[in-house]
């Protein structure tokens, strides 16, 4: 199992834009309204921090590889190589480069109308990291940090994300 996790602040940011783009998901007038519901666990699909907490129970199993979205963005080639190794898939250097190119955000966004239809423009918005800084107030950032510390900071998954939540923030 490959478990891809992401900075909770960027998850909230992406989810806010997603929810306002999909008719079947409740939309929000303002970021503040969304943030309130997100922190109160009132958004569709539940609480991301609880999701991470549940997955943490399995994080040490040898048939589970955890990788962060941020790691993949920082070094796509190394990430693909590690994933291929985990699944026992040998890759030549040429194959590795093809996978890196075809799985890049830009490539997937470009082909999203073929692969995801009308949801493509909603699913493939920016693909970056730290976009949360464009929405979060200082108080909201502190609230998310506090919730992170309470729920998962000391766990294996929390330790993996902590660097991206604080050090790279």
UniProtKB/TrEMBL annotation:
SUPFAM superfamilies: P-loop containing nucleoside triphosphate hydrolases
InterPro entries referenced in this protein's UniProt entry, alphabetically: P-loop_NTPase (IPR027417), Sulfotransferase_dom (IPR000863)
EC number: 2.8.2.-
Taxonomic superkingdom: Eukaryota
Keywords: Transferase
Molecular function per GO: sulfotransferase activity
Keyword Transferase: yes
UniProt domain Sulfotransferase: residue ranges: 1-155
Enzyme class: transferase
Record PANTHER family: SULFOTRANSFERASE SULT
Family: Belongs to the sulfotransferase 1 family.
Name of the protein: Sulfotransferase
